[in-house]
Amino acid sequence: MPMHPSTATSSAGPQPAVGEILRSWRSRRRRSQLDLALDVGVSTRHLSCIETGRARPSPAMLDALAGALDVPLRERNHLLLAAGYAPRYAERGLDDAGMLQVRSALERLLRAHEPNPGLVLDRQWNVVLANRSALALAGLLPAALLQPAFNVFRASLHPQGLAALTENFAEWAGVLLATLRRAIAASGDASLMQLEQEVLAYPNVAALAQAHPPGAVTDVPLLVPCTLRLPQGRLSMFTTLTTFGTPRDITLDELSIELFYPSDSASEALLRALHDALPG
Q1: Which residues are within 8 A (CB) of 135 and not within 5 positions of it... i.e. 6 or more apart?
Q2: How far apart are CA 173 and CA 156, in angstroms?
Q3: CB 53 within 8 A of CB 40
Q4: How far apart are the first and last CA of the chain?
Q5: Which structural domains are found in the chain, ordered by start?
Q6: Alpha-carbon distance 52 to 126, whole Å?
Q7: What's the pLDDT at 212?
Q8: How would you label 235-253 residue by residue, b for 16+ Cβ within 10 Å and e otherwise?
Q9: What is the per-residue pLDDT across 91-127, written as a single tens digit (0 to 9) for each?
Q10: How far apart are CA 214 and CA 182, in angstroms?
């Protein structure tokens, strides 16, 4: 099946110029013109001309600047379009025939990780794939929290979601909120910004936000567990997050794999028992 480059960009209203977009990403990454110019091997004058619209960057220059600024592939297509070029990066779903090997590898990884929960997430942290152990935990959630998508932040922070079962909610919520803010800073994704406003409005999260303002947490503490009080017992887990190396497809660039591990021997035994009790 042929690849179809993503051209997702709003058609409502005037679109920002390529120089304005580049300047925005440079500001987001906290890079000076001098620093960025040295990084890509151009003069600060030429970079300034690009940002102010007095010079039109070539596709190769845009690729170099975007690489130095760690711009996600989806936004690199937007840069190319803004400069008058065709988008370069394709976006194929995991059900695409060309993604068969990737999807198969992800499914094998998730199965091999059982009895521990494992998830594959998109850029908004919606669950794309999950193993049976993760789906069993998702079964504890109200159906409304699984629609229109099973979102990790929403499911974990909503007062009727896993937050109601989280023993160390204040600590774990702080980790999740810091993670969400870093995801927004890295991607500039408007949907994540809307999600942040949604979860900050939850009464349990709002109370925490008042006690711990956003600027109070600068980094995620090392290996903070998520500790749940389940009907079967206490379950404490830490997580790892993995991404694809050198992706050239938007879908792969935006996917991440979250694997949960037991924090203690009692949790390891509980995960095994819960998995053994699953049908099939």
Answers
A1: none
A2: 8
A3: no
A4: 34
A5: 18-82 (1.10.260.40), 97-276 (3.30.450.180)
A6: 37
A7: 62
A8: bbbebeeeebeebebbbbb
A9: 999 999 999 999 999 999 999 999 999 999 999 999 9
A10: 11
How far is C-alpha 123 from the geometric centre of its chain's CA atoms? 4
Residue with tokens 């303002």: 213
Q: What would the pLDDT profile of 13-27 be if each residue is shown by its tens digit? A: 577 999 999 999 999
For CA atoms 250, 253, 259, 263, the dihedral sign is: negative
Tokens 């925490």, residue located: 208
The CA distance from 271 to 133, in Å, is 8
Residue 8 has pLDDT above 70, yes or no: no
Q: What token pair was written down for 153?
A: 């932040």
Alpha helical stretches, state H, the chain: 18-28, 33-40, 44-52, 59-68, 73-82, 100-113, 132-138, 152-157, 169-187, 190-200, 203-211, 250-254, 265-276
Could you give the CA distance from residue 57 to residue 250 in angstroms, rounded to a whole number? 22
Structure tokens at 57: 């960057």
Look at residue 280 in the predicted model and tell me its pLDDT: 73
Q: Kindly indicate the confidence band of residue 269, based on its pLDDT and cuts at 50, 70 and 90.
A: very high
pLDDT reported for residue 5: 41
* CA-based R_g, the chain, Å: 21
Contact 79, 22 (CB under 8 A): yes
CA angle 174, 177, 179 (to 5 degrees): 110
Q: What is the value of pTM for the model shown?
A: 0.86
CA-based nearest residue to 89, from 62, 68, 69: 62
Token reading at 3? 């690849």
What is the largest distance, in Å, between two alpha-carbon atoms of the chain? 66
Closest CA to 42 of 68, 16, 23: 68
